[in-house]
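Today's session is about reading a structure prediction critically. Students often jump straight to the picture, but the first step is always the sequence itself: look for stretches that repeat, for charged clusters, for runs of hydrophobic residues. Only then move on to the predicted structure, which in these notes is written as discrete structure tokens rather than atom positions. Here is the chain we will use throughout the hour.
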Amino acid sequence: MGVGQFDGKQGNEVVLRVKNRHLRYRLTTLMSLGAFLSLVSCMRGGTDISSGEAYAVQHGCFGCHGVGGVNENPNFPNLAGQKKAYIVNQLFVFKQGTMSNPKIARIAARYNGMMAAKASQLTDQEILSLADYFSTRTCSFGPKRARPAQVPRQTVICEDCHGEDGISLAPNIPNLAGQKQAYLVAQLNAFRRSSTGTNTNGASRHNIFMTRQAAKLGDKEIDELSRFYAQLDCRGDVQTNPLDQ
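Below is the predicted structure for this chain, in token form.
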């Protein structure tokens, strides 16, 4: 998920329209960096990887996401090798969904009952440690996968934020390469539903950029994009951004 901005009183989107897609990507990245400046500063201080693993055991993360962040369930995302700031962001968003402040809960960009319950039990330090642990795990072993021969035309838009090979260069925009196809389909459908106001409290997701893009996609296009990114190697071929270190 990228950055969503909202009016504090009404929860309205603050829309940024930029025609040049490369400039839009850079602006999106700068907005992301600004929103997470204090967060990245905290993360650069470093956390104990062993503590993150202990917290994952304590809070039952491995039950769904697998030991080391790789699991076999097609509906649960792999976390191994995912962007550190993105994991932190999502855990805080899930946590906000259970807070007593109704204004915060109303503008939360993502809700899932199971994750909200789990995240509500986490301290800020536990969130940072968990993100540090999962982001540094190996997402795949063995030789790299070959890039699929058929590339959906819609990837031109996706590349702006998620990278040419599904590896984002922005610290809080997720990698898509090697992620579960069923999970990606579910997330794109959730974004698309939010564009029509049909998301439910059971599991919902909204983002100022993703909601607009997903609204343009049909079922076939969502399936093609999800299959393509799921087939990419999660380690990618793009140089790692120094801000992720």
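Discussion point for the tutorial: Residues 139 and 161 are 20 Å apart (CA to CA).
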